[in-house]
Amino acid sequence: MNNEAVQPYQRIAQDYSEKIRQGRLAAGTKLPGIRELSEEYGVAAGTVQRALTELRNAGLIYSHQGRGSFVSGATGKSAQDPTALAIEALQSQVAELTARLDKLERRRDG
Question: Would you say the pTM of this structure is higher than 0.70?
Answer without folding.
Answer: no
